[in-house]
Amino acid sequence: MSDWMMIPAGDPENGVRSWPVFQPSQPRQARYFLGLYCLCVPPAACIAYVFGMVGAALLMGATMLLYLCCACPGFTVYLYTQTWSCSPWHWKTNLYEKLVFLFYQRGNAVFTTASPNAGLDFMRVSDIRPKEELDKTAIPYALDIHVPKKSTEEFGENSNPCWVNFVEKIEESLGKLPFTDNFDCFAEGEDPVQFVMKQVGHIYPSTYQVWDDKQSDMALTRFCLYGLGAHRIEMEELEGHSNNNHNDNDNNNSNNNSTKYYVVRTNALASLPVRDGFERYGGDAYFDLAWRPVKIVDFGLGPLRRNGRQESVTTRPGDKGWERAKFRFRSSLSVLVTLVDHLYGVHLQAANLFVTALRENVSAEHPMRRFMTPFTYQT
């Protein structure tokens, strides 16, 4: 070791080892790591080259064999899905949606899943796994959320790790397919609901609530008071506001300069970017205390700013853009409730923590474990 690299045994003042700074010796010399081992490099490279040629030939042969076996079926499936855009279906969508559609077709797709039930033919007590630490995966873009993998399921096809891993690879690969947007409009008088029901067939779920009126102001009230937005109702009192169209007693004014409103908010989504051709989410719907729609304040209609200050557009009943504002609000609320309240709140938080605690801390023989098992299946 050079003299300049030697470290003193200790610090004369504190008695501890110090790490002083030294300048390298001059002149500076480059290092190329040349030695006797370099003589072995050319022969080893020639041997690696030969093995590489053999590997390339084998890879080309395997590729050709794979093409001969899969190309014709693959082209057949692709061209078959392209015919969906022809008459009478006119389903112009991406290959991704088409493959997902076929995936969920029962009896028509290769991958089918039996309907679960709590009977002895599906949920046998002997299949309940013992108390164990579950294999989990971290959720991207989430704050320290770990979800048990499908292979930790106790019943059905998901209890087979090989099958689960195979299906997961397919699901992950589907998202890598080319994706385009189609902005064709419905024809005048065409029913969008009937169109969707015709396209998806028996995949369309059965409805247990029939709302003949979906777009009126009264429908907006039902949507927020009894429907999807009921759990998100807030009360807000605005200073300097008064509603001259209704009796002050209806609005329960605390004074002449303030008015109370019921509010269902979705403007939390207004700052999220969207793909080209789509409008941003947004819209806070205000109702008086008699649950009559008063206005919709929308932060998603203005330009997207990164400084935290979004421009709002207020639309009231009777205004030119009122129907559009209601449509934007209903769509935004559906996304907000599905993504935040249902997916994140119910599945990733409540159900995830409950199932993990149940499986990792309660034995298979415990009555509570057996009682709760049917209610936690695939949650």
TrEMBL record:
The keyword Transmembrane helix applies. This is Uncharacterized protein. The chain crosses the membrane at residues 32-51, 57-80. The keyword Transmembrane helix applies. The lineage of its organism: Eukaryota, Sar, Alveolata, Dinophyceae, Suessiales. InterPro entries: LipOase_C_sf. Keywords: Membrane, Transmembrane, Transmembrane helix. Gene3D superfamilies: Lipoxygenase-1, Domain 5 (1.20.245.10). It comes from Polarella glacialis (Dinoflagellate).
